[in-house]
Amino acid sequence: MSSASSLTTSYAGAQTVRHELTFLNVFRVIQALVYVSLAFTPLGLGWPQLGTFNFAGYVTTLYLLFALLSLGLTRRSMGFAKLAVSAALVVDIAAAVLAISAMNDARIGISMMLAVNLCAGALILPLRLSSFFAALATMGILGHTFLEATHGGPGDRDLLEPALFCLAYFAATTLCHVLGRQLRATEALAEQRSTDLANMAQVNELIIRRMKTGVLLVDDANRIHQINESAWMLLGNPGADQRDLGQLAPELSRRLYHWMTSGKLDETATQLADGVPEVVPRFSRLAPNDDSHVLIFLDDTSLLSRRAEELTLTSLGRLSASIAHEIRNPLAAIRYSAQLLAESKSMDSTDQRMVEIINNHCIRLNEIIENILQLSRRERSRPETLDLGNWAQDFVAEYSEGNDLGADSLRVVAAAGAPVAAVADPQQLQQVVWNLVQNALRYGRLPGEPARVMVVTRQGEHGVPILEVIDRGPGIAPKVAAQIFEPFYTTNEYGTGLGLYLARQMSEANQAALEYVRVAGGGSCFRLILTPATSAK
Question: Do 440 and 528 fall within a single domain?
Fold first, then answer.
């Protein structure tokens, strides 16, 4: 943003110099025309000696040609403006001194016009250079005056007049330089502020457009003037030409009218279109007691519910972790006692069965405690760029080596072509896929048949890396599938109900999405949509 401001400021400064240079060149043309009119009209007949009059015409004509040339080259001289102005001022001073010597009766007017040249140059040139040209003009005017007095012309007049002009040159150039510098600084500051305001307006517009809360601006005719992306989605993705709020969302229009007439807000949730979440509308005037424009905020209740659920689960996780710590020691004592009982030779078969049940439930409770503690002390993800195909090959080899699969099958299906690059924490990704594969081998089998599990890596739309764990089991009923990612939900009496919940939490920590997809013809698919390596960069 600062670089953009500096570019705009330099551009504004160049524009100011260009305008000042154009003014100086236009004035020089007018000045030369005045000189020529004095030299070639009866206005100059009062001046002595015909030869002098002819010299004036010659000088003023050359000066007019120079002025026209300078005006024509204004745009090209922008690259060396200071040099062009300096050279032109030398010509201005020389032409003025020669014109005064040839047309002495016009000395006051010529001296005054020269002051304008010096002041215009002071707006562009540094102070030292401006003072130099003021001194040069002073030497020219005073030199002509002394030379005239030496040759016995009208120079016996008082020297006060040219001396005052010379003092005026210094004062005027200094004042114009200071004013020009202040004006240029003010313009640069104004341009910078304007650029900053424009950038801030763009940032505000981007923030509003990306807000999760829907925002609409409606006038007193019930027409929508502005709408952000969230509001557009919550209204059912209307067309660009649909601007009438009454036709687009009658319930929202009714609530707006009710709020404007009664001042009361209906805070019940409502659905503004089919297939969109319910919202709670809020209204605000742009100015007090002004109903010409009203802001409408649409709060998505599903987001609020999700945030409340996250807060609840966070609190529940902390509470569960503290309880798990308290349960761990008594559980270890129970399990140790059961193991001692199992070693007794005096127990009958019924007692042995009871001890076995105790051990099984102790194992299940210990798994629940471990999962709860893992959830409460979950570490921050450390993402790396992974070749998903190679990673899956290594994972399957490690899992197969560490688990006796027997007749069950676990294999990798990697997409042909370019490697599938993804960004994820390899340790947390391994925990997620380990959980999914373990569930697939345990539950993804038909009665009397071995499990057939595939770990598939491929690229989805727009190059998104995807890892899928697919089995050929009976699948999951739709009613159950809607709840499988909820904590403590399980259909198995020995399950903890935390495996898939933990897998989804770890996936979200790695900017990934874990979802269940039913396989046509039977089976289940857990799809992990990861972050592509190019997006992470």
Answer: yes
